[in-house]
Amino acid sequence: MRKILLLTSILTYAAFASPYARCVSCHGANGEKVALGKSKIIKDMTKAEIITALKGYKDGSYGGAMKGLMKGQVSSLSDVDIDTIANQISK
After folding, report:
1. What kind and span of H or E run contains 56?
2. Domain 2-89 has CATH 1.10.760
3. 33: three-class secondary structure by DSSP
4. Mean per-residue pLDDT for 73-89?
5. Pairwise CA distance, residues 55 & 69, whole Å
6. Residue 86, class by beta-carbon neighbours within 10 Å (0-12 exposed, 13-18 middle, 19+ buried)?
7. Where is the Cytochrome c domain positioned along the sequence (predicted)?
8. Which among 53, 46, 45, 47 is positioned nearest to 74, based on CA atoms?
């Protein structure tokens, strides 16, 4: 019974977790940090800039020093996830 409750809790959390949750450790809860001392402060970016950056990281056409790291972070994001992140963070 405990295993079922634990699995249900995990699945519920995963279903409702923000796609931005994976970004918080480097970029901060509100996009206020310079990630690893190299990134832009993403809360200052427009929605269009965030979408362009995330899609570019995903297809390999965007990025500098953190391009490889970011490609791994965004590779599983859907267009809906990208839009959700952009809405949450943008000006």
Report:
1. helix 47-59
2. yes
3. coil
4. 94
5. 14
6. buried
7. 7-91
8. 53
Cβ atoms of residues 71 and 54 within 8 Å: no
Q: pLDDT tens-digit profile of 1-60?
A: 665 655 554 544 444 578 999 899 999 999 999 999 888 899 999 999 999 999 999 999
| Distance (Å, whole) CA 34 – CA 90 | 15
The domains of the chain are located at: 2-89
Compute the Cα dihedral for 64, 58, 78, 9 and give only its sign: negative
- In angstroms, rounded to a whole number, what is the distance separating the alpha carbons of residues 72 and 70? 5
Structure tokens at 55: 């899609």
pLDDT higher than 90, residue 91: no
* Residue 28 buriedness (CB in 10 A; 0-12 / 13-18 / 19+): middle
